[in-house]
Structures are given as structure tokens and as C-alpha cells.
Design goal:
The chain is an alpha+beta fold and about 100 residues long. The protein has 2 helices and 4 strands.
């Protein structure tokens, strides 16, 4: 089993992402609900994006802001209680450390 990896610098990258997205007209709690750090793949995940067009714009902004993070994903979450809507993730490492 792999150990949990903690990357404190991701919190600075999270702040950078929020600030940069705001400069592009994408605001927290309006255009997206949360932005989480992904320690296991060294990246960020933006959740609760109500509009597909905003998800595409967020992905574009994040790919420009973090050009060395080559792995990304975008999908619509349409079930469950939390963070319904589109989700965008971008990360540096290709695979997740699943612990098994």
C-alpha cells in the first residue's frame, strides 16, 4: 500500500487558480462551487460548475496557467448530493496513488 502524499504547495496553486479564473470572469460560488487539491496526482479539481461553457473555459484557463500539468479530465456529475454539475481536473502526475 502506498503512503498518503501531502503536497503543501498545492494550496498556493489553488489560490493562483482562483485568482486567475477570477481575472477571466470565473468566480467562486457563481461559476463553480469548490476547488480541491489532489495530492495523489499533484493537481486541482474544480467542482460544481453549472454550465458546460464555464467548464470548458475553466479547463482552458487551468491548462494555460499550469502548462506542465499535462493530464486533465472534464465530466458532468448528475447524481448524488454534493457538487452536481461539471467537474474539471488538471494534474501533473498521470496516475492516482490508489493505495492497493
Amino acid at each position: 500500500m502506498q503512503e498518503f502524499r501531502f503536497c503543501s504547495e498545492l494550496f498556493e496553486y489553488r489560490s493562483t487558480a482562483i485568482e486567475t479564473m477570477s481575472k477571466h470572469g470565473l468566480d467562486l460560488f457563481t461559476n463553480f462551487g469548490t476547488i480541491d487539491v489532489l495530492h495523489d496526482v499533484f493537481g486541482l479539481e474544480v467542482c460544481g460548475i453549472p454550465e458546460e461553457s464555464d467548464a470548458l473555459k475553466i479547463l482552458s484557463v487551468l491548462r494555460t496557467t499550469f502548462p506542465n500539468w499535462r493530464h486533465f479530465d472534464m465530466f458532468e456529475k448528475d447524481s448524488g448530493i454534493l457538487d452536481l454539475g461539471w467537474q474539471v481536473s488538471i494534474h501533473r502526475d498521470q496516475t492516482r496513488a490508489l493505495g492497493f
